[in-house]
Amino acid sequence: MEAAVASKFRSSRFIRGVCMILAGVMIIVIGLYFSVLSGVASISDKEFMETLFQFNASNEKHLIVWHLRIPRVLAALFVGAGFAVAGAIMQGVTQNPLADPGLLGVNAGAEFMLVLIFAFFPFMPFQAVIFFCFIGAGFGALLVYGIAYFAKGSMTPVKLALAGAVVGALLVGVSQAISILFQLNFEMAFWSAGGIAGAEWTQVKVIIPWILLGLMLGFFLSPYITLLNLGEEMATGLGQRTTLIKILAAVSVFLLAGASVSTVGGVGFVGLVVPHIVRFLIGTDYRWVIPCSAIIGAALVIWADIGAKLVNMPYETPLGTIISLLGVPFFLYLARRERRELY
Prior knowledge:
Elements: H1 2-37, H2 45-53, H3 60-94, H4 106-120, H5 126-150, H6 157-181, H7 185-193, H8 201-229, H9 232-237, H10 242-264, H11 270-282, H12 286-310, H13 319-337, H14 339-342
């Protein structure tokens, strides 16, 4: 009887997972189409198809589609997947419902390193910039966990969130001071707010392998994260090498967040909101949570970017602003719902 119930539950979860992936892919495809057509310059279906199959370098519309619209939407696709999976991994490994690259110092550390590069090494190639963003992401996370670890009492989710707020404010303040000192306000303005309008083929070609590597590592770790999410003692009792899993998970997060921040800057809340939505719909099996988070995260950022292009007051609204309008209320709701468990 119990075996039959368990089999039925697994079958139901499988159906829900497949439906979520298929629905997410459809939303992404529709979003890709509308994203390429939307913007200041009007692009028709015919011009879009001609760009793909009969590209004419002397046609201005073709140039807009190929050099501006397509790199931008591809960046949104991979960055959305990267931030969402990074958040899912962090929440699963730390068992912290508030874990998110933007809330626990990962994004702030990568942005801080980005400012240092703009100030002291402005001509550094983008391939090297990404590498240093990985280091900055790790630096920010270590600061947050170090402060929370040495604080009085146990390391609770609230302490991590508070430490993340402190470290984020510190790194942002230092970054702004460096920006003013070296007159980098223009270069950093869109990155600080989270912007994807400046994405180019050069950046997209560099970040895709890194994000794919981080995603594949996350997919590989997914069954182990499921066990770790049940409790470290239980995972250890089942023979899992928890320290190694945590190290590999951290590497995956740094790859995903570092590559994403180097391209679009501080886009927060994607890694917080998406995993909660996915777990609510399909449960806590990370073999489904991680791939579904990648799909839903990509869809969210693509459609948020469409909204950013449509809201011009008088300039295009940064992507981070659009997502924050969704993320901040969700964060407040989550903190209120989990208040008894967080302390």
